[in-house]
Amino acid sequence: MQTLKRNKRCYFLILFFLFGCATSSYRILNQDDQSAELSVSPDRIVLECEWLYDADIKGLYGFMIHVLDEENTVLTLIQGNTLNKEDCDRRIKIISKILKEGKNIYIAGIGSINELRVKGKRSYFFPQKGTFFDNERTLQFIAIANEYGSCYDAYSGEEKPCPREPFQIQKGK
Question: pTM to 2 decimals?
Answer without folding.
Answer: 0.80
